Amino acid sequence: MSDDQHAKGSMGYLMEMGALKRGRRSGWWIAGIRDPESIAEHSFRVAVIGAVLAMLEGADAAKVALLCTFHDTQETRVGDIPWIGRRYLTAAKNQDVTRDQVADAHPVVAAGIQAVVDEYETGDSVEVLIAHDADKLECMIQGLEYLEQGYSNASEWVDSTRAKLKTASAIKLAEAAQGMSSADWQRTYLR
Known about the structure:
Layout: H1 3-17, H2 27-30, H3 39-57, H4 61-69, H5 75-78, H6 83-86, H7 94-101, H8 107-122, H9 126-148, H10 155-163, H11 168-178, H12 184-190
Cofactor: Mn(2+); Co(2+)
InterPro entries: HD/PDEase_dom, HD_domain, YfbR/HDDC2
Keywords: Hydrolase, Metal-binding
């Protein structure tokens, strides 16, 4: 492939990632939330949470944020399949979806993205553990926010995701979140 074709392939991947801003986290529909967060909104906060958890755990915050950023990028092609739906479907592995997504990208880009997704899906480093905790903690926090908005069915997501947290820092932050309102952060500045 020529440099122009690689540039177009890389840009095609970047354009495809825009679909994450429009795709909704469909599991929340089961809880009765009509307009749930987008996949991109979820992924952004997962990356921030991941970096914070990594700092607290003494791990590589940039690496964790990178793992978190790419953890749901395959959902442009397969959608956000809720856990209950996975019971009835056989879906492609995220690594296989990513391979197709980056097939026409510059080889350096394709290899880099593939390595990140492969590590998130199969790695066992502390950074991978933290990235997975960040995904769960974000879901729990989002559930708490939906509970505040009156969606009582979100409590199951809060409880089930909190129970899956593994790192001490994620567990500590989850405990703190359950005693807070989503508006608590601004109260100090409004005085």
